[in-house]
Structures are given as C-alpha cells and as structure tokens.
C-alpha cells in the first residue's frame, strides 16, 4: 500500500470534478478522500501501485467536459487511508487560487428532462446539473459551495439532497441543484406589479407572440424581449429603450432556426452551441424572416441560443426568434434586481418575468464572431470572464489595469494569469462607475488578488485615468495604441519587438493629438511611432463621431485651398444650415476645439459619408459598418503616398479622397467606392508594413484596434501581409477593440515594474 497527496488546479470546482474523482477512485479500489480547497481540488489516495497509476491516468485523461485541468501535483503522503473513498467538506483557508468555471449553458441532458413530461423537473426553469448552470453570477465568495452562493436561502428537499449526495448521480454535489419543490421560482407580473395567472414562462411566451415587450430575468441580468419578426414590436422596443440604430441581438431556439436566418459555417455553429453561448455575429440570408428593424441596416445579425432553462421554455413557447437585448436604457448598466428592473424598465416592458434567485454580479452577454476559422471576440462577459488568460512569461508584480473609456474592461495580472473582468460598457456615468467597482471588488475577492501597481491610459479626461491615483499604488500610464499592440502580443502568448498596426477611432497620443491610424515599432516596454495616417482637423472633436459631415469638412479643408470651395463642395453633398457652416469654417480656421487626428476610424466615416451612406451617425462606428456591408470586392484602389521625408512617416490619404470625389461625381455606385476604399486602406497597411520591415528587419506584424473588427479590411490586410512574407498576429482571446486594452496595459506595466 502507498499513499499520494494530489493537488489538481484549473477549472475543477463546480464542474462535477469531485464526483468524477469519487467514481474513478471506486473503479480502481482507491481509499482516501477528495475535497475542494482554495487551490482547487485536494485528493488523498491510498492503494497499491498499479491502482494508483491507473487512478492518476484516469484523473488526467477522463476529466468532466466542463473541467479544465491545468496542473496536477503529486507527492507521497505519510498517512494511509483505509475504507471507502469519501468526499469531505471544503477547506476555506489558504490563498484563493482556484479557478471557477464561468457560467455554463444548460446541457443537453437537462434540456431533455426540462421537456420530458414524466420528469420531476418537467418545465422547471432552474434545472441544472454539475455539467451546466450558473456560476459567477451566483457566487459571493470561494470556495464554490452552496452556502456562499445566492442558492443559500433554498434548502434542498429530500429528493434533491439524495441526488446531491449520490456519487452516481449527475447532480452529485451540483451546488445550485434544485427542483419545483425546494428551489427558486419564476413568476410573471405586469408593470404595476400585479401577478399574472398561469405558468410564468408559458404566459410570457404567449404575450411575446402577441407583440408584447417582456423583461426577462436571465443569468447575468435582465433582457428586454419581443418578437423579432414583428416590425411594430421591434420599433416600439427601440423607441422605449431609446436605442436607435444599434443592432439588437436575436435569440433562436436552436442551430436550425439560426440557419433559417443566417449563413452558419461549421466554426460558427460550434461557437453558437458552445457552453459559453456568446452572441455570434452572422451574415444574414436574403429573405430572412426577421424584421428589418432588428439589424439596424447592417448585413450581420447578432444571434445566440438559449442558455438558461427559462430561455428554453420561453423560446419553445413563442415559436419564433426573439429580440433579447440587455435590460437597460441606452448606456446604463444592465438591471439585475427585481425591484431595480421594475423601476428602471417600467416604462419599457409591458410585463416582467421575474424569479427569486439573486444575481450577485452583473454579466452582459458576450459577443463573438469567427474570423477565418478562429474565434475573434468582440465583447467578453458571461461565459468568458473572469476566467484568466495565460500569458508568458509570468509577471513579477500584480498589476491592476483600468482599461479605456469605451467598452471598458479591467484586468488584474498575477503571474501568468490575466484575470480580465467582464465588459463594463462606456465609463461615462455614475452607473458604469459603480458597475466597474462592483465587478472589480468581486474579482479581487474571489481570487485573493492584491495589485501592487496600477496601469491606466494617458488620456487625462478618461474616468479610469482620474480613478488611478485613488488606489494609492505606483502608477504606470500606457499609451492607448501601445496597449492595443501589446494586448495582441499577449493574446497570442508572444513577446518581443513587432510592427504594430493600431487602427481605431480615438486614442490619446503622446503629443496631445488624437491618434488612431498608427504604425508602431514596439515591444512590451516601449514603442516608437514609425508611421501614421495623414492628420486632418477634427472640427468639434468628438462631435465628428456623430456628425460625420464635420469630419468630411475637416478632410475637405485639406483638399481645397480656400475655405469657400471646401464648404461649397461639402454643402453640395450634405444639408448643412448657415450657422453650422459658419461654425465649421470658424473652428477649422482658428483651430477652436479642433484637434488634428490620424484616426483610421474617422477615415472610414468620411468614406461612408462621401459614398452617400449617411451624414450623421447614431453610434460610433455605424457608418463604417455600413460601408463594409455595402462594399463590393474589387481589384481597383485609390492612390495614396507613403511620405518618408520625415519621421514618423505619413501615409498621405489626400489623393484617396480626391480620387474618390471624382468617382462619386462621375456616378460610381457606393458599393464600388466602398470596395475601392477598403482595398486602398488594406494596401496602405501592407505597403507601410513592408517599408517598416525593410527598414527594421522585423518580420512580425500585430493588428489591433477597433477598425480591425472590419472583416473585409482585416482579411485583405492579413492576406497581403502574409504574401509579403510577414508573420501576422490577430486577436483570438480578447477583443481588438478597446475591450482588450486592459490586457495590454497590464503587461506593459508589469514589464516596466
Ligand atoms: Zn445539466
Ligand atoms: Zn428539490
Ligand atoms: Fe482604441
């Protein structure tokens, strides 16, 4: 007889790991015990040499699907256990290194039982098992055990308790295990709070199919739902939520229903059906049954599958795709509490589908897509965060990175683990600030993180920059585009010097101007601005993001010698009143509230506006997305000049817009102009990177920044760079947009500390 002490770390709690250990211990006649501790799972195993060998092998090879074993440490133990193998209570002491799985979509077994009339959980909205169900949204603290979750008020009935205690049961030690007798309940109320008759989920489905708007309490917050095929219902939801233009996510009952709406590749299907269940951006089919109001004019739909039992019941009952958009008004955080939802969403929803299992932490839906054959995340939240991203080499200090202003996320780096918090949103209001603080506090507590350094953006007006000194720690300011490129490096588990193409809407430059079309030569500790796009005045600064014609005037003012001609050419295209025209001329001439910008995002806005798509936008990036949506594949392009007369080099795009104006005036279709513009910008990337590679000898390029959400641009850039013999890195684990900034900030600060 020998005895081993085995410590398993990774995602090993809340995924049926202890029952699995129990089962294999019995299979091989092993005595001893298994328990959760703050490091993961701790096992004492006693048996003969052969049995122990087989037991260890099974431990590594046969772990449950939802588990992710990162490390198995084995040491010989002094004590010899005898008798049957046991699962013992958790040990809450020690530092908390355990990794909890993010929330998992309802598994196939549970869905089957949900719709099985003979099952005791038939149509029970909170069915779950060790392979599925809520995790981070219900955890108060670690270890992940029921008393430390929002399931603590529900005492298991005898039948549930028996399942929980039976090692052969799928619900053995499933912390949120529940049934209609003992568990949480759902109910339906109208907006006055009056209870509705009938089964809550079934009634909600009926109201939705009749055109109603229902607020549904989900996993990480409330959704607002309506019939996605009903123009009137969708228009009404947009109006009440004050969400104009931006696409709305659509939930469909299964992959087949998704195929009736969108083109779905094998990779996209895998992503749609994965237990993380992100919203997946898919190309819509012609003749799709969805209301035109849903996508807001774009050619892509954000589609996702049900991920809670309640969703399954509502979708099955409604029998049609449903809009499921986050339960908030414009930019506020998503509502999680019943009373909060009734208060804040009372003017939007007609009815509320509520339940009594508390959501402890807000998690928005994640948004993802497939670029070529790999995942290309857009927004990381439910199902993804805060499970750490591995980086190499490990960091020597713990860093808290506060992220950017828009699409904010934070990141806490410890060793090789980068804990990226969930998408917070745009840090512009009190509500978002609270959401940030609550999410950060939860991550610090759950993983016992103690940051020693704070990293922040250089923009003096960002709320996150202003917040940095409050931590009382040494601070490291990281330039926005440097952070983008280092984020891409870390995302690829790479390091060292690269050519970084950071193209986005806005970022604060070290010279105080607005950057956004940057070619950097950088590593994790420093960067050099090797080249940038031509800089145009941006009259009214951020006003240009919404009033696109203002940015067009900024470009015109550089194309034409005198302001009269520039304004004339502008007014020939856009309806601009005299006051606005005078203000534009005045601002540019006197440089009043008119920074200059090298932003690539603004160039896409200008191209879209000139192509006649729109003169004003209701959200940042709208025009650029539409430009991509109409763009036709082409071999034509506009001319640009790579001006190498001074450092940094300048990609002069004035010829691009001159030629584009000629095209448009000669009646070229927007689709052609859009295609040519995409090809031009891709060529600008390729030619500039080639020139930098020649000058520096560097052979790797990293592409980051929100502009690379543009699939056409990214595809052509990657193809061209690869053909030029350059190795190209794109994002795969964190977004290329500002949602990935915090990872880059954290790595830069760690390497500098
Ligand atoms: Zn399950
Ligand atoms: Zn029960
Ligand atoms: Fe950015």
Supply database-style keywords.
alpha/beta, Alpha-Beta Plaits, DHBP synthase, Nucleotidyltransferase, domain 5, 4 domains, nine-stranded mixed β-sheet, seven-stranded mixed β-sheet, 24 helices, 33% helix, binds zinc ion, binds fe (iii) ion
Outline:
The chain is of the alpha/beta class and 753 residues long. It is 33% helix and 20% strand.
Please provide a written account of the structure.
The chain has about 750 residues and is α/β, with parallel strands linked by helices. The strands form 6 sheets. The protein has a 9-stranded mixed sheet, with helices on both faces. A 7-stranded mixed sheet has the order 29-30-26-25-24-31-32, sandwiched between helices. The protein has 4 domains: about 1-85, 2-Layer Sandwich (Alpha-Beta Plaits); about 185-365, DHBP synthase (Alpha-Beta Complex), CATH 3.90.870; about 385-485 and about 735-753, Nucleotidyltransferase, domain 5; about 530-730, ATPase, nucleotide binding domain (Nucleotidyltransferase, domain 5), CATH 3.30.420. The two termini are about 50 Å apart. Strand 8 (about 215) and strand 9 form a beta hairpin. The model has no long low-confidence stretch (mean pLDDT about 95). It binds zinc ion (2 copies) and fe (iii) ion. The site of one zinc ion has 9 residues, from helix 4.
């Amino acid at each position: 007889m020998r005895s081993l002490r085995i410590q398993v770390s990774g995602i090993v709690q809340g995924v049926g790991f202890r029952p699995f250990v129990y089962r294999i211990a019995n299979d091989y006649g092993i005595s001893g015990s298994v328990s959760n501790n703050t490091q993961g799972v701790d096992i004492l195993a006693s048996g003969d040499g052969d049995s122990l060998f087989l037991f260890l092998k099974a431990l590594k090879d046969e772990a449950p699907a939802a588990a992710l074993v990162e490390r198995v440490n084995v040491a010989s133990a002094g004590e010899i256990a005898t008798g049957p193998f046991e699962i013992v209570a958790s040990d809450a002491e020690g530092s908390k290194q355990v990794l909890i799985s993010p929330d998992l979509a309802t598994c196939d077994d549970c869905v089957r039982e949900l719709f099985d009339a003979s099952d005791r959980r038939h149509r029970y909205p909170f069915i779950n098992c060790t392979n599925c169900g809520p995790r981070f949204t219900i955890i108060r603290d670690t270890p992940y055990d029921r008393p430390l979750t929002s399931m603590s008020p529900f005492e298991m009935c005898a039948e549930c308790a028996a399942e929980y205690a039976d090692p052969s049961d799928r619900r053995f030690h499933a912390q949120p295990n529940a049934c209609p007798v003992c568990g949480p309940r759902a109910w339906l109320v109208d907006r006055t709070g009056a209870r509705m008759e009938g089964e809550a989920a079934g009634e909600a489905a009926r109201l939705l199919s009749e055109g109603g708007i229902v607020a549904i309490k989900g996993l990480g917050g409330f959704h607002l739902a309506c019939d996605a095929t009903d123009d009137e219902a969708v228009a009404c939801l947009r109006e009440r939520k004050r969400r104009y233009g931006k696409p709305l996510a659509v939930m469909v009952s299964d992959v087949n229903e998704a195929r009736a709406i969108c083109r779905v590749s094998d990779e996209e299907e895998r992503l749609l059906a994965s237990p993380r269940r992100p919203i997946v951006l898919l190309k819509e089919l012609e003749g799709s049954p969805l209301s035109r109001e849903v996508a807001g004019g774009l050619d892509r739909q954000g589609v996702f599958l049900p991920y809670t039992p309640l969703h399954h019941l509502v979708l099955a009952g409604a029998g049609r795709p449903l809009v499921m958009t986050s339960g908030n008004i414009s930019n506020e955080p998503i509502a999680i509490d019943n009373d909060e939802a009734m208060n804040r969403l009372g003017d939007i929803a007609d009815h509320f589908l509520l339940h009594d299992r508390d959501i402890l932490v807000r998690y928005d839906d994640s948004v993802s897509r497939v670029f070529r054959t790999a995942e290309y995340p857009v927004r990381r939240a439910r199902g993804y965060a805060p499970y750490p991203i591995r980086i190499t080499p490990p960091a020597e200090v713990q860093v808290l990175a506060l992220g950017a202003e828009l699409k904010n996320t934070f990141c806490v780096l410890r060793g090789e683990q980068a804990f990226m918090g969930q998408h917070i949103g745009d840090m512009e209001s009190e509500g978002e600030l609270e959401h940030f603080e609550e999410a950060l506090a939860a991550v610090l507590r759950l993983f016992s993180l103690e940051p020693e350094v704070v990293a922040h953006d250089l923009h003096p007006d960002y709320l996150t920059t202003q917040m940095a000194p409050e931590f009382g720690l040494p601070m490291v300011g990281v330039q926005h585009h440097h952070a983008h490129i280092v984020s891409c490096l870390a995302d690829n588990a790479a390091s060292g010097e690269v050519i970084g193409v950071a193209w986005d809407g806005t970022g604060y430059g070290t010279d105080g101007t607005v950057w956004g079309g940057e070619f950097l030569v950088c590593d994790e500790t420093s960067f050099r601005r090797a080249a940038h796009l031509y800089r145009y005045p941006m009259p009214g600064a951020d006003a240009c993001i919404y009033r696109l014609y203002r940015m067009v005037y900024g470009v015109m003012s550089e194309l034409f010698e005198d302001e009269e001609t520039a304004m004339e050419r502008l007014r020939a295209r856009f309806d601009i009143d005299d006051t606005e025209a005078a203000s534009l001329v005045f601002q540019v001439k006197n440089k009043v509230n008119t920074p200059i910008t090298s932003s690539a995002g603004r160039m896409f806005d200008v191209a879209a506006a000139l192509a006649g798509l729109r003169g004003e936008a209701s959200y940042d990036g709208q025009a650029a997305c539409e430009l991509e949506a109409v763009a036709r594949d082409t071999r034509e392009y506009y001319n640009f000049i790579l001006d190498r007369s001074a450092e940094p080099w300048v990609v002069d795009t004035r010829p691009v817009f001159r030629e584009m104006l000629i095209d448009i005036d000669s009646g070229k279709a927007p689709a052609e102009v859009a295609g040519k513009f995409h090809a031009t910008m891709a060529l600008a990337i390729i030619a500039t990177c080639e020139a930098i590679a020649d000058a520096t000898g560097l052979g790797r390029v990293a592409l980051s920044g929100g502009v690379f959400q543009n699939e056409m641009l990214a595809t052509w850039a990657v193809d061209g760079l690869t053909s030029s013999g350059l190795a190209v890195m794109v994002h795969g684990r964190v977004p290329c947009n500002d949602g990935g900034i915090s990872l880059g900030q954290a790595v830069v600060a760690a390497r500098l500390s």
